[in-house]
Q: What sequence folds into this?
C-alpha cells in the first residue's frame, strides 16, 4: 500500500467544492422530484440526457481508472493534476480562436498546452537540479495562472457572457454533447488497447525501467504514449468534473485498488471497476435532485469507496486489524488470569482448590470491578465457576474454582512460561533474572509442536530456573482432582 | 592472416561516458573471452556501475563503442542477462516474484504477445535454482534483501543468455546466500557462459573470480587474478594518485559541452 499525502488532496477539494460550487457554477442534471419517480426515470434510461451522461461517466470512469492504475503505481499521482491545470490556457486560446464552446480547436489547444507542460517538466528535470515534485508544482501553478487570466479576459468580451467557458473550471455535465462522449470513447478505446496489447511492456517499464531498456523495450516511447493517453483522458473528462477535480478521477480508484490487491492485473481491473461504479452512483445521486453537482458527487462516491475499503478490507483493513488485536488481547487477558489463579493455588501448596476474588485481584494488581470482569469472562468460557458461600457479606470474598478445562489451560500456560524460561537460561544462556519478561510474552504464542521440541531439547525437565515445578503433560491430563499427586512430588 | 578474428562475447573499445558535465569513464578498452568469470573492482565512484549500464545501453556513451558477440545495438541484447543494483527498482510495485522472473522471458516473447506456458515453466525452474520457488506468489517488496537479490538472479537466468552482467549481486546478502550465488555463477561459467560481475569487497574478490578488471575512471588493469591482484595495481586503483588527472579532466569537461568530451589523452 503506497499512499501518500497527495492522494488525499482531491478529497479535501471535494469537500470544499460541495460548500461553494453547488450554488455557483456546477449543476445537477435534473430538477427536484420524488425519489421513486426519479429512480424509475434513471433506471429505465428513457431520457436521452440520462443515456448520454451515463455513457459518458462509464467511459470516463473506465479510462481514468485504468490510466490511474498506471500513474499511481509509477508514483506519478501529481502528474495528472499538473496536466489538468496545464491544459487550461490551451482551452482558453482554443475558445478565443473558434468563439464556440464545442469545438475541435479547444481540444487541439488543450492538447498543445498539455504537451507544452509535459515538455517543460522534462526540460526542467533534465537541465536543472530542481526535483520532479517541484517541477510539477511549478508548471501546475504557472499554467493555471495564465489560464485564469485568459478566462477572465474571455468573460469580459462581448461573446464571453453566454460562453459557458467556466465549465472547464468547475465541470458541468448537463451540456455533455454526443461529440464529447465520442471523444471519451476514443480515449477509452486507446487506453484499453494500451492495457491489453502492451500490458507486459508497461509492467516491466513501471517496475524496472533499466532492465526494460536492457531487453530492448523502448522505455521512452512507452512513457510518451502513457503521457499522451493521460492527456487524452484528462482533457475529455475536464468538462464533467472541471480542472481541479480531474486528478481525483485518476488517483482515488487506483489508490483504493492498491489497498485491495498487490497484483498489477487485478489492480487495473479494480481501478477501472471502481471508476465506473463511482461514475454511475455519483450520477444517480445527482439525478435524485438534491441540488448537488454531478462531478463532485462522483468523486465523493469514489472517496467513500476508498474509506469503506480502508476499513473493511481483509488484510489491510483497519476494522479487521482492530477486531483481531481485540481477540488477541482478550485471549492474553484470560490466560494471565488463569496463570494468576494457578500461582495463588501453588502458593498454598495446592492444599485448597478455591481462591477468593480479593486474592486474585491482589495478585493480578487490578481493582475489584476489573477482577469481576475477568472472572466473568472465565465463567463465560467455562474455565471457572463461582461458589456461593453462606453468610457472605463482602464481594471480595467471592470464591472461585477452576473447571477441568480451566485447570488444564492454566497448567498449559504456566508450563509454557516455565519451559521457555528454562530454555532461555539453559540453551540461550540468558541470566535467570532476564527471562521472566520475555516469557510473559512468549507463553501466549508457543504452539504445541514448539513446546514438544523444547521438552526434547531440555529432556523433560521438572523444575524451572527459579526452582518451581513445571506442570507436566500428565498433570494437565489428570486434572485437579488428582492434585495431591503434584503436592507429593 | 585470413582467418576471422576471435569473436568475443563482449568487446568494448575506447568507451567514454560523462554525466552532465562530469566525466565518469574514459577510453576503456576491454575484450572478454568466452567462458570467463570476471570481477570488476574499484573504489566508489570509479564508474563500475556506469560501465555495466553503458554496455547494456541504459546510459548513452559519449564516445567509443560496445560489441556483444560481434554485434552492436539492440539486437545484441537478447543474448545478455542483466542483474541491476537492488536499489534501482520500486519494491512497492504491485508485482509478484513470479511476475518479476517472467520479465526475464520478455525478450524471447516478442511484442504484443503473451507469455506462454513454456515461459512460465522456465521461470519456475529458475526460481527453483535459487531456492525461491515457494515465494512465487509473494509481492516482491515483502522479501528480505537477500531474497530480492536471488529473485533478480532468477530473472537473469530466465533470460537464458550467453553473457551475464551483474551489478553488485552480493550487496545486502547474508553469507549463506553469498555462497549459493557464487556457486551458481561458477556453474554458469562451467556451462560456457561469460559473466561480468561488479564487486566491492576486496577481501574475497580474488577467491571468487578467475579474472579481474581494476577500474578507476579508466581501465587500470585487466587480466588473470594472479597478475592483477597485486599490491602495486591495487594501490594504483584505490590510491589517490589520480586526483590531478580527475581535476584537469573535470575542468576540460566544463569548458566544453558534455557530449564533445572524449579527450582522454590529456
A:
Amino acid at each position: 500500500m503506497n499512499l501518500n499525502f497527495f492522494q488525499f488532496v482531491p478529497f479535501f477539494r471535494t469537500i470544499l467544492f460541495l460548500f461553494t460550487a453547488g450554488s455557483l457554477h456546477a449543476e445537477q442534471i435534473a430538477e427536484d422530484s420524488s425519489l421513486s419517480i426519479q429512480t424509475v426515470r434513471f433506471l429505465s434510461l428513457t431520457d436521452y440526457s440520462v443515456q448520454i451522461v451515463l455513457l459518458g461517466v462509464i467511459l470516463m470512469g473506465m479510462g481514468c481508472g485504468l490510466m490511474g492504475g498506471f500513474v499511481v503505481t509509477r508514483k506519478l499521482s501529481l502528474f495528472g493534476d499538473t496536466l489538468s491545470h496545464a491544459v487550461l490556457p490551451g482551452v482558453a486560446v482554443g475558445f478565443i480562436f473558434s468563439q464556440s464552446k464545442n469545438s475541435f480547436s479547444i481540444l487541439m489547444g488543450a492538447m498543445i498546452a498539455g504537451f507544452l507542460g509535459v515538455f517543460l517538466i522534462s526540460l526542467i528535470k533534465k537541465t536543472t537540479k530542481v526535483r520532479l515534485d517541484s517541477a510539477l508544482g511549478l508548471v501546475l501553478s504557472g499554467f493555471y495562472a495564465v489560464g485564469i487570466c485568459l478566462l477572465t479576459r474571455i468573460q469580459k468580451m462581448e461573446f464571453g457572457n453566454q460562453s459557458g467557458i467556466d465549465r472547464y473550471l468547475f465541470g458541468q455535465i448537463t451540456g455533455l454533447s454526443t461529440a464529447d462522449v465520442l471523444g471519451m470513447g476514443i480515449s477509452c478505446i486507446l487506453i484499453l488497447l494500451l492495457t491489453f496489447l502492451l500490458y507486459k511492456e508497461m509492467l516491466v517499464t513501471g517496475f524496472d525501467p533499466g532492465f526494460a531498456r536492457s531487453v530492448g523495450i523502448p522505455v521512452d516511447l512507452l512513457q510518451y504514449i502513457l503521457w499522451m493517453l493521460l492527456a487524452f483522458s484528462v482533457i475529455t473528462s475536464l468538462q464533467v468534473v472541471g480542472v481541479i477535480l480531474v486528478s481525483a478521477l485518476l488517483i482515488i480508484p487506483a489508490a483504493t485498488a492498491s489497498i485491495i490487491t498487490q497484483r498489477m492485473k487485478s489492480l487495473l481491473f479494480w481501478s477501472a471497476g471502481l471508476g465506473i461504479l463511482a461514475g454511475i452512483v455519483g450520477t444517480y445521486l445527482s439525478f435524485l435532485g438534491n441540488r448537488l453537482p454531478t462531478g463532485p458527487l462522483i468523486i465523493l462516491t469514489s472517496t467513500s469507496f476508498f474509506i469503506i475499503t480502508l476499513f473493511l478490507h481483509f488484510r489491510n483493513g483497519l476494522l479487521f486489524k482492530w477486531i483481531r488485536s481485540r481477540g488477541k488481547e482478550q485471549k492474553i487477558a484470560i490466560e494471565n488470569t488463569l496463570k494468576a489463579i494457578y500461582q495463588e493455588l501453588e502458593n498454598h501448596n495446592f492444599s485448597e482448590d478455591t481462591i477468593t476474588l480479593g486474592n486474585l485481584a491482589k495478585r493480578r494488581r487490578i481493582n475489584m470491578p476489573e477482577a469481576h470482569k475477568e472472572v466473568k469472562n472465565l465463567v463465560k468460557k467455562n474455565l471457572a465457576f463461582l461458589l456461593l458461600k453462606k453468610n457472605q457479606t463482602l464481594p471480595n470474598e467471592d470464591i472461585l474454582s477452576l473447571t477441568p478445562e480451566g485447570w488444564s489451560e492454566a497448567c498449559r500456560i504456566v508450563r509454557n512460561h516455565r519451559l521457555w524460561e528454562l530454555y532461555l537460561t539453559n540453551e540461550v544462556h540468558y541470566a535467570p533474572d532476564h527471562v521472566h519478561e520475555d516469557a510473559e510474552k512468549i507463553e501466549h504464542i508457543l504452539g504445541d509442536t514448539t513446546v514438544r521440541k523444547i521438552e526434547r531439547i531440555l529432556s523433560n525437565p521438572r523444575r524451572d530456573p527459579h526452582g518451581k515445578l513445571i506442570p507436566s503433560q500428565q498433570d494437565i491430563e489428570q486434572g485437579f482432582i488428582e492434585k495431591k499427586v503434584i503436592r507429593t512430588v | 592472416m585470413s582467418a576471422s578474428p576471435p569473436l568475443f562475447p563482449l568487446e568494448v573499445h575506447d568507451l567514454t561516458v560523462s554525466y552532465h558535465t562530469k566525466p565518469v569513464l574514459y577510453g576503456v578498452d576491454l575484450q572478454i573471452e568466452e567462458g570467463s568469470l570476471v570481477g570488476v573492482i574499484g573504489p566508489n565512484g570509479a564508474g563500475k556501475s556506469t560501465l555495466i549500464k553503458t554496455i547494456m545501453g541504459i546510459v548513452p556513451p559519449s564516445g567509443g563503442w560496445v560489441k556483444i558477440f560481434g554485434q552492436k545495438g539492440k539486437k545484441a541484447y537478447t543474448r545478455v542477462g542483466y542483474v541491476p543494483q537492488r536499489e534501482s527498482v520500486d519494491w512497492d510495485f504491485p508485482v509478484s516474484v513470479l511476475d518479476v522472473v517472467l520479465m526475464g522471458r520478455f525478450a524471447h516473447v516478442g511484442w504484443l504477445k503473451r507469455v506462454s506456458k513454456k515461459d512460465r515453466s522456465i521461470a519456475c525452474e529458475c526460481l527453483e535454482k535459487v531456492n525461491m520457488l515457494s515465494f512465487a506468489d509473494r509481492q516482491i517488496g515483502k522479501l528480505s534483501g537477500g531474497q530480492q537479490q536471488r529473485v533478480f538472479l532468477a530473472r537473469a537466468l530466465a533470460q537464458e543468455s550467453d553473457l551475464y552482467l551483474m551489478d553488485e549481486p552480493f550487496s545486502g546478502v547474508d553469507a549463506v546466500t553469498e555462497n549459493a550465488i557464487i556457486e551458481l555463477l561458477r556453474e554458469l561459467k562451467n556451462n560456457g557462459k561469460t559473466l561480468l560481475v561488479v564487486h566491492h569487497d576486496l577481501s574475497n574478490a580474488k577467491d571468487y573470480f578467475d579474472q579481474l578488471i581494476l577500474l578507476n575512471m579508466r581501465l587500470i588493469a585487466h587480466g588473470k587474478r594472479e597478475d592483477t591482484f597485486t599490491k602495486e595495481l591495487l594501490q594504483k586503483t584505490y590510491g589517490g594518485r589520480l586526483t590531478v588527472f580527475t581535476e584537469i579532466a573535470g575542468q576540460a569537461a566544463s569548458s566544453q559541452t558534455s557530449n564533445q568530451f572524449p579527450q582522454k589523452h590529456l
DSSP finds 23 helices and three strands in chain A. The longest strand of chain A covers residues 384-387.
